[in-house]
């Protein structure tokens, strides 16, 4: 089994895709006006409009109701990304801080309230974990 993507469902696909394009610096690939993907070397962040939910089963997913998952992106310099995103991100949960497990992390919310963590490994153990 291979994890390929995480999909977010949203009422405003243009807004959410635009936000993730700014955060990641990756241009989305649009399959339809209701579905886009932000591709990274490790996996894909898929974003679908609420109009796609009926294809899976009415009511099977609801936008802007995530209270458990954190979408995490490994970045080269979390402090530089914090400076770059100050004008874009409206809801920072914290400023960059070094976590006990060795990553320097920045937590914020996307326009639908989903948590995003940008992190940079800073200890030898954390750097080794993500090397290669």
Low-confidence stretches: none
Q: Could you give the count of β-strands?
A: 8
User: What's the CATH class label of the largest domain?
Assistant: Alpha Beta
Question: Could you give the order of strands across the largest sheet?
Answer: 1-4-3-2
CATH architecture of the largest domain: Roll
Overall, the morphology is: globular
**Count of spatially separate domains:** 2
User: How large a portion of the residues is in β-strands, by DSSP E?
Assistant: 25-35%
**Secondary-structure element series:** EHEEEHEHEEEH
Total number of helical segments?
4
Superfamily at the CATH H level of the largest domain?
Answer: 2,3-Dihydroxybiphenyl 1,2-Dioxygenase, domain 1
- How far the N terminus sits from the C terminus, by CA atoms, comes to 21 Å
In helices, the fraction of residues equals 10-25%
Q: By helix and strand content, what is the structural category?
A: alpha/beta
What's the pLDDT, averaged over the residues? 96
Radius of gyration: 15 Å
Biggest sheet architecture? 4 strands, mixed
CATH topology of the largest domain: 2,3-Dihydroxybiphenyl 1,2-Dioxygenase, domain 1
Keywords, please?
132 residues, alpha/beta, Signal recognition particle alu RNA binding heterodimer, srp9/1, 2,3-Dihydroxybiphenyl 1,2-Dioxygenase, domain 1, 2 domains, 4-stranded mixed beta sheet, 4 helices, 32% strand, globular
